[in-house]
Write a structure and sequence with these properties.
This protein has twelve helices and eleven strands. The chain is an alpha/beta fold. Helix 4 crosses helix 11. It is an enzyme of class 3 (hydrolase).
Length: 356
Amino acid sequence: MFSFFKKKPKPEPEITPVIAPAAVSTPTPADAPSAAVVPNVAAPVPATPEPSQPAADSKRSWMARLKAGLSKTSSNLTLLFVGAKIDDDLYEELEAALLMADAGVDATQFLLDALKRKVKDEKLTEAAQVKAALRTLLTELLTPLQKPLELGRHQPLVMMIAGVNGAGKTTTIGKLAKHLHAYDQSVLLAAGDTFRAAAREQLTIWGERNNVTVISQESGDPAAVAFDAVHSAKARSVNVVMVDTAGRLPTQLHLMDELKKVKRVIGKGMHGAPHEVLLVIDGNTGQNALAQVKAFDDALQLTGLVITKLDGTAKGGVLAAIAKTRPVPVYFIGVGEKIEDLQPFNAEEFVNALLD
């Protein structure tokens, strides 16, 4: 069993954090590891579980929720191929459906051009064949976004979490902490969102649920909170640090500069950190999500994305726009509020949910 206290703690930094009660939980069978969190040789590797009916039921449940979340886009796309003729009208309707799904102009044109070539080269004559060809092309487009989150590369592994207000950033941090516990990873959270009311309290609640230490301040500089967290994690031999940050709109340049400062200060606390810079995106925001990816990537050099709220009115096509325009890896996607509603992004599963 891994312990927070392998090493004797070093003296605390000058700024005294408010720390929630710390404990280390041992994952239970219910805490099944996420396939997108892949430890390398430096991290403890859990035993491979035997296939079981509950695991199969869990996968079916996840696919059902994902398909339900993407049902709006799915129905618009799949109905096009029911009794359709392979002609210009079909391509025009497909173009409109992709644009309505927030796939964007570039990705839509790319898919249409590739589909027309495939239909011609392979002499496809049936609507079902064209649909299968679209499935293949869309999977190929999204597969480069599918990348595992590797653990154990650094001690600690420092993750900076960014996103606009309302994207589900703090909730996502809590869910990620649960996933990390499934890999025997001790976690420390930094409440760097010192601007939003109750943000610190919300993160502390997630910390208590997961038996995770939370470092925060009543008020003050978010960069100082992040710096404290990195030093505390090093002193406690914690595996992973996740730094929450205040929500920012890409147009608020002075506030984006504050995020850059937080990143610089984290680097002073540990050379090379943060090792992961994740952007949490609300899947309902459509093309605004692509604008957020561009702005935050330009400012922070993103290493990964988490797409939340892919349910209800979410259109899902924005992943195609991201893949074509700014292909930052998508580590996780979420379809609800529960812990199990955040799962690794799998391109084939995602496309099947869209086109089945």
